[in-house]
Design brief:
Number of helices: 7
Order of helices and strands: HEEHHHHHH
Shape: elongated
Structural class: mainly alpha
Distance between the termini: 139 Å
Helix content: over 70%
Length: about 230
């Protein structure tokens, strides 16, 4: 009887321990599931935060790139302007040193212009103004003129072809700067050269010849007015 009671108590204890273990095991599983879920949520949250940080960094990089591009464009424009004004300085040196028929500078250009117009007006053979221009400027006494006019054309070509000047209004400003440096005789000689090179209409549309003062109708220089 006592043994049976002991066995019964032992069996009851085993059942109770098993039940407690089952309860503990079940609770543990639930906690593990809970912790696993929380860990997963944490991972997702960390990924989302990193993604947001990457987006912010990307925006900052784009802004930085835009600033650098603006700075690069500004730097390129500054270099262009430096080159432009250096070429103008060289042009002024050539213009001041230009010599024709022992006349220097503006007087030399005026003398050359008079020679060309006189040949066009008084030649026995009928010569156009451009033909007279080509004939006179090819002679040895006009040897200073070729490097002068080529340098001037280089300046104008740079203005016309550069990608750093993105508007016609801005191009006209640069052409005006050049035009303001030319005497009337220089500008009219440039008209002849630009006619021969097929650039006259472009230069005219840019306002390069706006400041030219032509002679009176009886003045041979007025022949150039037919271009204007």
């Amino acid at each position: 009887m006592k043994t049976n009671l002991t066995n019964l108590l032992g069996f009851s204890s085993l059942v109770m321990v098993s039940a407690l273990c089952a309860i503990f095991w079940d609770s543990t599983n639930k906690l593990e599931v809970l912790f696993s879920g929380l860990a997963f949520v944490g991972v997702v949250w960390a990924v989302l935060m990193q993604r947001e940080e990457l987006q912010e960094q990307r925006k900052e990089l784009e802004l930085t790139r835009g600033v650098f591009e603006d700075q690069s464009l500004t730097s390129k424009k500054q270099r262009f302007e430096n080159t432009f004004f250096q070429l103008l300085a060289l042009h002024n040196q050539r213009s001041s040193a230009f010599r024709y028929n022992d006349l220097i500078g503006p007087q030399g250009f005026t003398s050359l212009l008079g020679k060309i117009t006189a040949k066009a007006l008084h030649s026995e053979a009928t010569l156009s103004l451009i033909d007279a221009y080509d004939d006179i400027t090819a002679k040895p006494e006009a040897q200073d003129f070729i490097p002068y006019i080529n340098n001037l054309f280089n300046i104008l070509e740079i203005i016309e072809t550069t990608t750093l000047i993105d508007s016609d209004v801005e191009k006209r400003l640069y052409y005006k700067i050049v035009g303001n440096l030319l005497s009337s005789a220089e500008a009219q000689l440039l008209q002849c050269e630009s006619k021969g090179r097929g650039k006259y209409e472009i230069f005219k549309s840019r306002g390069l010849f706006d400041n030219i003062i032509f002679g009176s109708p009886t003045d041979p220089d007025s022949l150039f007015a037919s271009f204007h």
